[in-house]
Amino acid sequence: MILAIDAGNSRIKWRLTDGGQQIAKGVELTSKILDGGTLDLSEIKSPSEIRVSSVAGDRVVDSLHKQLLKQFSVAVRFAKVSATIGELSCAYEDPQSLGVDRWLAIAAAYHQYSEPLMVVDAGSAITMDIIGPGGQHIGGYIAPGLTLMHDALWQNTSDVRVVGSGLEELWLPGKNTQQAVNRGCLLAAVSTIESLAAQFPVRIVMTGGDAKILKQAINLDAEHHSNLVLDGLALDGIELVDAKALVG
């Protein structure tokens, strides 16, 4: 059984699979680990392999490594970006300067479709990566995520949230502050994606916490996958390094 963990800036998601079949899954806030807590993996007994993708910083990496090693006594390996995975090639001159979450999402999407793509990961940031013919990663774009845009506009914005209803009114001016913030932030993200799609008319694949909202809002066809990063961690050919190379 393989335990795969995707440690993002906001949330940590995990999935346990056996022979490619999902056995269990979970999600917790990254802040729990930063506050000294641990992941609740009590329903997991004895994974044979542990794979981790992390963009959450050294403290999270160190805490996860210590917990996993103590709880399971299995080597913990972390995903790294490589210049190529099969036919897929990275556009960055220094591949390891690309976020590993972006690389895993790109790899998972291309593994499934094997055609030119725009991969949109709508999380804390919204990343948009273009894959051209023959698996050539052309490069990408990073924009603020919906929550970051809210926070930049209005501090302590707990009552101002993007909602999935009323999307047919996205282009109408808001008649109160909540509507104005919701529609302005969502419209900015939608306009960016649609503008890129006009330049790169390829299949759009979306993932991340806000992917469903954006998929409903854009005036384009798009495929939705709940967690391409975990899908990417499951791929053969992903470069993995022992946690000892990353933590003390």
Question: Would you write up a description of this structure?
Answer:
The protein is an alpha/beta fold and 248 residues long. The chain has seven helices and 13 strands. α2 (58-72) links the parallel β4 and β5. The longest helix has 23 residues, at 177-199. The chain is globular. The two termini are 27 Å apart.
Short description:
The protein has 248 residues and is of the alpha/beta class.
Would you report the number of β strands? 13
- What's the rounded overall pLDDT mean? 89
Globally, the shape reads: globular
CA radius of gyration: 19 Å
Q: Kindly estimate the percentage of residues that lie in beta strands according to DSSP.
A: 25-35%
CATH class of the largest domain: Alpha Beta
- Give the N-to-C terminal Cα separation: 27 Å
Element layout with pairings:
Blueprint: E1 2-7, E2 11-18, E3 21-29, H1 30-34, E4 49-54, H2 58-72, E5 76-80, E6 84-85, E7 88-89, H3 100-113, E8 117-122, E9 125-131, E10 137-144, H4 146-153, H5 177-199, E11 203-207, H6 211-217, E12 223-224, H7 228-233, E13 239-242
Helix pairs in contact: 4-5
Key structural traits:
single chain, 248 residues, alpha/beta, Nucleotidyltransferase, domain 5, 2 domains, six-stranded mixed sheet, five-stranded mixed sheet, 7 helices, 31% helix, globular
